Amino acid sequence: LSFRATTANVALARTMAAAMAARAHLTIDQIEDVRLAIDEAVSQLVNDCDEQTHVHCDFTETAGTLVIQTKATTRSGQPPATDTFSWLVLAALVDEVTAGADNGLVHLELCITRPASVTV
Q1: 82-99: per-residue pLDDT in tens?
Q2: Which of 69, 105, 110, 113 is deepest in the core (most CB within 10 A)?
């Protein structure tokens, strides 16, 4: 999924993330967590981008696990700070979140896995 870095387009990422979470057979609570997490992750990128920039989201779903990679070339070229309330919320919503940057391209990766006790 690729879209212009505007707050109005964050809803595209939320909708796609929810659909992919459902395909991965995540629980209802996890689907909502994924929606909130992608909203937070993409918003952090959008807030540091020019409107002409595109945000890219890659979704990979396999056997009860959803991995979402988001990336954009930001003004600062730096990953989001990990000592903020926003990062704390993001980390609480998914099983794993990582961030990095490579030549101004900032990327965040979110991973969430269906609990073993939940059967499809």
Answers
A1: 999 999 999 999 999 999
A2: 110
Indicate the SS3 state at residue 35. helix
Report d(CA 97, CA 93) in Å as an integer: 9
Sheet strands side by side (includes 105-113): 2-4, 54-62, 65-73, 105-113, 96-102
Could you tell me the CA-to-CA distances from 82 to 4, 8, 110 in Å, in that order? 25, 25, 14
In contact, 41 and 70? CB cutoff 8 Å: yes
**Tokens of residue 91, six digits:** 């980390």
DSSP state of 8: G
Quick one: pLDDT at residue 30? 96
